[in-house]
Amino acid sequence: MQKTINAIESRFQRRVYRVAEIEKLGISQSTTYRRARADGPWTRLAPGVVLVAPGPPTVHDRIQAALLRAGPGAVVTGIVAAHLHGIPTSLDDVEVHVLIPHSRKIHSYTGTRFERTIRLPEPTYVNGIPTAPPVRAVMDGARTFRTWAFTQRLLHDAIHKETRCKLNDLITEMELGSRRGTAVPRAILRSFQGGTTPLRGLAASPARPASTAQRTAA
């Protein structure tokens, strides 16, 4: 059995697979799940999706797992997508945020969030990854209840460092999208409109989720 598994592993062309795909290659689902246990050589990344390489998963592995779980038409957005577009953001403690068609229902899981939307954007492909355009990605990231300092730097850098986002375009995207989580980015963009960009002294700290109270207030 081990020789068979080794032979099949040598044919793997990716690091992340659906369990059903591995079964078609000749490894049973029970064997795959057994190898993806905590003490096994593989890692379960999502329901029905495993990493078939040793070691911890990379951000790219997590993105691929989320897209396989989401199915056709899914688009990566938020902070991870902004990072892919070249906007300097920390990915510490950041979930993979994926937009899916509103007709599709997929449960989120730890480290990955699926958001149903009637405004599914035409993807921009970055290193083969279907990604929301910069303005959508940044605004989706800004309304995910991060700290004021992190959100302020994200919006500032999107406008001033990469110049991929215009202030008015971000405001328009905020008004078109969900109102949930917009209290902080709305206030920050308003301050930018007034010519205020008080970024001096801000530490480039990891993105930390806001508290439950902050989420409720937003």
Describe the structure.
The chain is of the alpha+beta class and 218 residues long. 41% of the residues lie in helices and 14% in strands. It has helices at 2-9, 19-25, 29-35, 59-70, 78-84, 134-142, 148-160, 167-176, 183-193, 212-217, and strands at residues 16-18, 43-46, 49-51, 75-77, 96-101, 112-117, 124-126, 129-131. A 3-stranded antiparallel beta sheet has the order 1-3-2, sandwiched between helices. A 3-stranded mixed beta sheet has the order 4-5-6. β7 (124-126) and β8 (129-131) form a beta hairpin. The longest helix has 13 residues, at 148-160. The N and C termini lie far apart (55 Å). The relative contact order is 0.11.
Blueprint of the fold:
Elements: H1 2-9, E1 16-18, H2 19-25, H3 29-35, E2 43-46, E3 49-51, H4 59-70, E4 75-77, H5 78-84, E5 96-101, E6 112-117, E7 124-126, E8 129-131, H6 134-142, H7 148-160, H8 167-176, H9 183-193, H10 212-217
